[in-house]
Amino acid sequence: MSGSSHFDVLVSGAGMVGATLGLALALDGLQVALAESRSQEQCHAKDPHERCSLINTGASQFLASLGIPVSGLGTPVERMRVWDAEHAGSIQLDAADADVQHLGYIIENRQLEQALHQKLQEMGVPLFYSTRLEHQHAGPHSRVLMDSRGAFYRTTLLAIAEGRQSRLRRTLLQASVFGEDYRQEAITATISTERPHGGTAYQRFLPSGPLALLPFTDGVDGEPRTSMVWSAQKPLAKKLMALENPAFLEHLQQAFGPQLGRLSQTGVRSSHPLSAMHVNRYVDNRVVLLGDSAHGVHPLAGLGVNLGFRDAAALRQIISDARSTHQDWGNLNILETYQRQRRPDNLITVFACGALNHLFSNRSRTLAGLRDLGMLGTAMTPRLRRFFIQQAIVL
Length: 395
Description:
Layout: E1 4-12, H1 16-27, E2 32-35, H2 40-44, E3 52-56, H3 57-65, H4 70-73, E4 75-77, E5 79-84, E6 90-94, E7 104-108, H5 109-122, E8 127-128, E9 133-138, E10 143-147, E11 152-160, H6 167-172, E12 177-193, E13 200-206, E14 209-216, E15 225-233, H7 234-242, H8 245-256, E16 263-266, E17 270-279, E18 283-284, E19 287-289, E20 295-296, H9 304-324, H10 332-360, H11 365-380, H12 382-393
Parallel strand pairs: 1-2, 1-11, 2-8, 5-13, 11-19
Antiparallel strand pairs: 3-7, 4-7, 5-6, 9-10, 10-11, 12-15, 12-16, 12-17, 13-14, 14-15, 17-20, 18-19
Helix pairs in contact: 1-5, 1-9, 9-10
């Protein structure tokens, strides 16, 4: 097709996962381009909500290998403390138990995106902002897409990392999608605290859902701050969102407890509904899904974006292996290797996070007893603690 740009890989979606895949493949010598529906101004602006993610140790090392200094962008997490609001069960997981320095880093999503975009720019990788792609034609060796301006793109492989509501996924794969509405909303905000967090990520399980206060960068005046994720049943979440800041902080203090002293200030609050999602099929000929376009989990374990980084790392390795043996790495047979590797891990995590949420957001005495036994056993068994930590930090 005349007038079209040709790329080895075209990534639709330049969020954290899509930009990471694009950067990794560009470093491997492939001709890569990315298309992002948001404008350049939106991507470069500061996020007033300061939305964050827990980037685990494995993902941090992967990003560092791509030239993204995660340790310089985020706040290290040295330990996690988890406890049940209505019963005695509690557990603390320390990085030292697994002979690692940190469990991961709490990083602002926007800051990580901006670091990835800057690296892509430095490498001369095309990143088309304000661009939505529409599929035009599928050939035996390429896909052809067109943007709203009428520009054509031919690519050997189309990687879709557009998020849960991906239009290209619905258009090209037409795969069945498992979904579960948790009937909860996640309220997020930055919270100032009286006492320093000391690198501890706190998570308290309430009957209405888990409440997490995660280590975050200090404020401009040096006050300690945490990043809050409060998952609450929808009626309660709506009431909490309607409160003025002083009343909201009073409810938060009562729900969380005295561990960090007085909770004195809240940043901009936002909320979004919580659900699980998993796509039955990740690949088609010269098309692949990754990140939230393929799966979505409850935020209680902080695994969401880390699963996307695992997707990107696995896809990169599969493409590299195929190139080394001169195979057509955009072919469906090769891409199915990626699906076989990633689908079980993602599917297990989706259901495990849902089960944990149900186990802890429940007033059943039987389930409460099981929670206490599980936490007691984990707290008293160093080998079991190491197992959980290693599962949480690997890529």
